[in-house]
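So, read this over?
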Amino acid sequence: MESLSVLLTWCSALTNSCAETHPRGRLVINKYIESVKALNERTVEFKLKEPFSPFMSMFVVDNMPMVPKHIYEGTDFRNNPANQTPIGTGPFKFKEWKKARTSS
């Protein structure tokens, strides 16, 4: 995932009063995040207001999922058609998904 996608996700959460994030995500954003910036194409810098050891655990899909900028920028995250098409990161790709039935 590119740094601008991470930045889009966090900036959207911050500027939209965290309306799209889980309550745990809102807590971390409001209490611990000082700033977020893309240093280059693959590096994002998070500055925390104070130490917070479970910070990395916030990057799970039900707290603060990262979304690809090229698919979500300028859209309503909740109603984006991509929400019905699984998007993965890394070397694995979905072959098939039958909603509420199977995925492979």
User: Anything to note?
Assistant: Strands lie at 33-40, 43-48, 97-98, 102-103. Residues 71 and 82 are 7 Å apart (CA to CA). The radius of gyration is 15 Å. The longest helix spans residues 3-15.
